Structures are given as structure tokens and as C-alpha cells.
Fold:
Amino acid sequence: MSSDAKAQARHRLQGIWAATLTPFQADGSLDLDGWRANLRHWYGDLGIRGLFVNGKQGEFASMTTEERKATVEVAIEEARPFDGGVLVSVSDQHVEVAAELARHAEAAGAHLIVAHTPLLYFGAHTDDTIAEYYRYLASQVSIGVVLWNQPPDCGYLLRPDLCLRLAREIPNVVGIKYSVARETYAELTRLAGQAPETEQLIVSSSPEASWLDNIVELGWQVYLCSTPPFLLQSANDRRMHDYTELAFARRLDEARAVWESLEPVRRALADSRPAGKAAAHQKYWQELLGQVGGPVRRPYLELTDAEKAATRAAFEGSGLKL
Structure:
């Protein structure tokens, strides 16, 4: 990957990016019409800069390889009129499936790929093993590669020094979605800022409640990423977008006031979520917003009628404007 291409990939990773949910029809099949409608709403009405497609929020583990390719192709097609970014999750337990998805993403026109740290057994998650995993996937493409580490889901932390080693040794590694404690991602942000320009790593994490502080205190340029950009906002209520733009413009008091005004919506979304049912809850919240949600796939569980009623009451009392 040339230095220009790496700079372009870094330039693309700015502003608010969202992790998508995948809509399915009542019979469990992929709802591509609903997917298109959501994509147009996210890019167009909400002004989201980029989308993280086929991640854990999108139930990739229950999707076939062909379904994952189909959602990617449609996302890239719908992104073009808005110059929207597309970051494709190629995460898979089978490394050759991940490699196939990576090659497909680039051929289809994706801007970047992202891969979660692999689930490894019997203590195999040594630094060299992880480096070889990412080196192999990155060698399959010429576009930017984003690392992804959420320790509870793989069993280990991708330490800050190892993150920097990967950025140093693998030319197209440009960023990381780092789902770790704030002190850990703050440390990586500081160390990455001290690295040579060609080895720097764009750091981000998913908690929306910390996004404003991370812009102000850590100098972050991208929210990468989760579902709040389309669950906390509507076409007529884009407060996450608004406080982000105010913060980037260093109008910090105004940004803080808008951020604080979203707290009732944050609380309504978080407090109404039943344990173990994040996917179904978020899809139902989407439907309340007028987006296409649909059912979840096994083994996830659907909301009960009582859980839907509680969620609807929380939504209606949140102050989110439709």
C-alpha cells in the first residue's frame, strides 16, 4: 500500500461511522429491500459518514458467505451517491473465509476492511500468531485494514504495544476499533501520536457517551462505531451529528449542551434493553423510528410482548423527535 493510499484511507476515517444491523424478513431470509431503505436513510437523512457492514451487531455469525457478499455489494452501491464510506467486516473463524471476504470487499469497491482478533485456543494468542493472522489478511488486499479487539469476545487484550507493532510491520493497517477500557485506548492514542507518520494508527471505540470527551481530550477524528448514530437520531433530530460538528469546530460549550440534551434518549435506550437481547431490542427500536428492523436469527431471542411494551414506553418518553 502506497503512502498516498494510506493517507487516503486515514482521510476517509473521519466523523461518525455506524455499525449496521442486518434486516431479515419474517421467514428469516435476507431483506435486501429493507437494507437499501436503511442505507439511504443512514447516509442521506442522518448524514452518517460511513458504515461498518457485517459486524457483530449485524449478526454476521448467522449469515452465509453469499449473504455477507450481497449486503456488501448493496451497501457500496447505495453509498456512492452520498460519497459514503464502507468498512466491511471480514471477521470469521475460518481464516480462508475471512480472506475470501476481504478480496470480495475490495473488488466490490469497499474503502476498508476490518477483522476482529481471532478466537484462538490453548494459549495460541501469542504476539507472533496474531501478527501472522493480520499480515496474511492484509496481504489479500491493497485497501486499508482496521484492527478490532473486544477482549470478552476473543479472550485476550490486543495490547497497545502490539497494536503499534502491527501498524509498523503491516503497511495497510490504518486504524483500530478498540473496545477496551478508556485508560487503555487513551494510552494507545498517546503512543500512536508519537509514532512516525507512516506508522500512526487511528484509534476509536464504540461508547457514544464518551465520544465528545474523546474528541476534546484525545483529539479523536472518527467515531468507529456502533448503533447510536441511527438509534439516537432521526431525520428531524440529529443531535449526535450536531454536537460532533460543534466539537470539531471547537465550539465546545455548545457541543456539551447538545450532548447533555441527549441523555434522556441514551437512558431510554439503555434502560429498556432486556439482558441478552441487544439485537432484538435494537431492531425493535429501529422500527419505532420508522426504519426496517425485522426478526433476529437463531440463537438470538426475540422480545416478548411485555418487553416490546416497555421499550415502546421508554422510546415515547425519551424526547427523541421523529
